Amino acid sequence: MIETFNVIAAVLTIGIGLFGLISPNYIASVLDLAPTSSTMGYSELRASTGGLYVLTGAAALWYEEPLAFAMLGFVYAGAAMGRFISLAFDNPPLRKVLAFGGIETVLALWFLCANLPYI
């Protein structure tokens, strides 16, 4: 059962990452980001919301080890932490931060709680 949910969550991670990798314009609009005088922002989106998630999800599936899935949990925990710290300092749109941060928190808790005991 744990293995099945690990695979589903890792595939979801890859899917989320593909949006950032393939369609940074869409991700920019969802995250209220706007291009400036350069396209560096798109590069950052492809890296941080795209490639990072695609490869960590794929690596977890490749290794099929609890430690690999737990590391994916740490990635999500870091993303959620950044969002919740943003609440204290940046006054972002609460609904969006809670939605994205909530998804990241749930995935972090799943990957960490389900896999750390088996390391």
Major beta sheet summary: none
Mean of residue pLDDT values = 96
Radius of gyration: 15 Å
Global shape: globular
| Total count of strands | 0
Structural class: mainly alpha
Number of domains: 1
Indicate the percent of residues in helices.
over 70%
How do the helices and strands follow one another from N- to C-terminus?
HHHHH
Strand content: under 5%
Poorly predicted runs of 5 or more residues: none
Distance from first to last alpha carbon? 17 Å
**What's the total helix number?**
5
Give your account of this protein's structure.
The protein has 119 residues and is mainly alpha-helical. The protein has one domain (2-118). It is 82% helix and 0% strand. It has five helices and no strands. Helix 4 packs antiparallel against helix 5 (94-115). The radius of gyration is 15 Å and the shape is globular. It starts with a helix and ends with a helix. The mean pLDDT is 96.
Keywords:
globular, mainly alpha, 119 residues, single chain, 82% helix, 0% strand
Question: What's a quick, concise take on this entry?
Answer:
The protein has 119 residues and is an all-alpha fold.
Chart the SSEs and their pairings.
Layout: H1 2-22, H2 24-30, H3 40-63, H4 66-89, H5 94-115
Helix pairs in contact: 1-2, 1-3, 2-3, 3-4, 4-5
